[in-house]
Specification:
This protein has 2 domains: 4-180 and 195-226, no CATH class; 262-344, no CATH class. Helices cover 45% and strands 14% of the residues. It has helices at 4-26, 29-39, 48-54, 119-132, 216-225, 231-240, 249-287, 289-314, 320-327, 335-344, and strands at residues 55-61, 76-79, 83-86, 89-94, 102-110, 149-156, 172-177, 199-205. The strands form 2 sheets. It has a 6-stranded mixed sheet with strand order 1-4-5-6-8-7, sandwiched between helices. The protein has a two-stranded antiparallel sheet with strand order 2-3. The chain is globular.
Length: 352
């Protein structure tokens, strides 16, 4: 019989593998090329083939390196007096012409839209770290003109439709950049600006519903990481709707990711059923062994399924509207009832 520790380790391993496959898929150049075209201003006029050719070398994915002098691009930024930052994916893209010929790009896959702090702030920090990482590679303390522009692009999965103030969240893409503002000029002539366009942060907010987004990039990424579509459905949609070529390695990665996602759900469901059944049996025994066992098993299975839905919603692996819909089969009336019952079970959904 599988112990709680063994079960927890297997679920954790599956989640880790799922996260790794998401990053592997996003780092595929067919996908990166489309992210460049639709999220990076300097590549808006490029074809997919041109954008693929612009990606320098092989994108780095969460690789550990030895501390010391930075001699090239890598996915871990570890600089004296600045602490350590680890990027999901980082690469350099080279433009055909213009002021920014080499652009450092960081891509982050974020499951928790609200981890307890503002993700935009973290994005600004990551973009800034990409600049400081260029020290002694692109520029020196004696000459800062070599600084390359940086982008930090955040793909936020399973975002809510709106926040507590009813502002739209999902199916949105927001760019943050530095803009000059002249506070005073004693001349009627145009004011000279320095090199300010060096940091961009782009937030791409997805949900299951944004599969049908009118925005190409949001719809494509939502399809790619959906928990509801099968691997075959994803591949067909990517080929037919988003003009991907025969998918090859992407297809294998999508299939593996879907299998892992299903495994995480099934493992969690087994855990919930086991805990709920045990609780139901214990309560049933107190009422009377013969009648209590049968009733306890039924109640335990029901409670186990609800516990699993509470956990999936709490971990943001299942959007709350979908969890409420599934929970309606077990007596949950509406979202308010779902939140109330989840709170009683120890799952705080107030920030979701």
């Amino acid at each position: 019989m599988e112990t709680h520790l063994q079960h927890t380790l297997s679920v954790t391993e599956a989640k880790a593998k799922y996260d790794a496959y998401v990053k592997e898929l996003l780092a595929d150049k067919e996908i990166l090329a489309r992210i460049l075209i639709y999220a990076v201003r300097e590549f808006q006029t490029y074809t997919v083939e041109e954008a693929i050719a612009a990606i320098e070398g092989t994108p780095e994915i969460g690789r550990q390196i030895r501390p010391g002098k930075i001699t090239g691009i890598n996915s871990e930024s570890k600089l004296p007096d600045e602490g350590e930052a680890k990027f999901d994916i980082v690469f350099i893209a080279v433009t055909r012409s213009g002021e920014h010929t080499r652009i450092y790009i960081n891509l982050e896959a974020q499951k928790q839209w609200n981890p307890g702090y503002d993700l935009t702030t973290r994005g600004i920090v990551y973009a800034s770290r990409l600049i400081s990482q260029q020290m002694d590679v692109e520029y020196t303390p004696e000459n800062y003109d070599g600084v390359c522009k940086t982008y930090s692009i955040w793909i936020c999965m399973e975002t809510p439709e709106s926040d507590h103030d009813k502002n739209a969240v999902s199916d949105c893409m927001i760019e943050y950049s530095i803009k000059p503002k002249v506070l005073y000029s004693g001349s009627s002539r145009p004011v000279r600006y320095g090199r300010y366009d060096l940091i961009d942060v782009v937030m791409i907010n997805l949900s299951e519903k944004s599969i049908n987004s009118k925005n190409y990039l949001i719809g494509m990424l939502s399809t790619l990481i959906s928990n509801q579509l099968s691997a075959a459905e994803k591949c067909q949609t990517l080929e037919e709707k988003y003009a991907f070529p025969v998918l090859g390695n992407i297809s294998k990665g999508v299939n593996t990711m879907c299998n892992l996602s299903e495994g995480i759900y099934e493992n969690g469901l087994k855990k919930g059923l086991a805990e709920g059944t045990a609780k139901g049996l214990a309560e049933g025994t107190a009422k009377g062994l013969a009648e209590g066992t049968a009733k306890g098993k039924a109640e335990g299975k029901l409670e186990g399924k609800l516990l699993m839905l509470f956990e999936l919603a709490h971990e943001r692996q299942l959007p709350i509207p979908d969890a409420v819909r599934k929970a309606s089969e077990f007596g949950i009336k509406d979202e308010a009832d779902f939140r109330s019952r989840s709170a009683l079970a120890g799952y705080d959904l107030s920030g979701i």
